[in-house]
Amino acid sequence: MAINYVIQAEVVDIHPDSPMATDIFFVDTNVWYWMTYPAATASFPGQMSDYPAFVNRSLAAGSKICSSGLSLAELSHLIEKTEREIYEKSVSLIRAKEYRHNLPGERSRVVSEVAAAWGQVKSLSSSLALTVDEKATDAALDRFQTEKMDCYDLFMLETMKNHGVVQIITDDGDFATVAGIRVFTANRNVLLAARTQGKLFTRVSNTL
Description:
This protein has 208 residues and is an alpha/beta fold. It has eight helices and six strands. It has a six-stranded parallel sheet with strand order 1-6-5-2-3-4, with helices on both faces. Helix 1 packs across helix 3 and helix 6 crosses helix 7. The radius of gyration is 18 Å and the shape is globular. 35% of the residues are buried.
């Protein structure tokens, strides 16, 4: 079933866009996964070229690249899941807990991959702090009632809001349904929906 995105954000196609020194971008976890974890190439060849190329153009242009410590939780989960799937293809099916606790060699590889990936995130970006206290969780829960997003993404939005960042690089179409932000993406379904709904934005300046 096709996803019916109701586009509220300004959506920018990253392929022709030229980043500027005045840009401040928040980078979503899925982009960090493709940029920092080599084994991601097998499942996502297009994303592996599109998003790293845009982030690298941004860095070369002097744009500020931002991340969140919350991405470590998502990134480690994705890497462990992918490493387990690689193991299953060559050896045998195994449950997640068994993979984590019964195979020390595999666990060591997962830890190494996560540490290497996170080291790259830290070297390429400025971390934006978010205190996950009652105020933050209440704000996320309020958004949960109106925004069609999971809670990780809601906390990412709170992080952006608290730091005055309005631009995000992501493949996640959920962000395109949020008003007041600008989504930089290569997601074809999102770009098509944005074009159809008059929300596809071509930049002529860096003013939002």
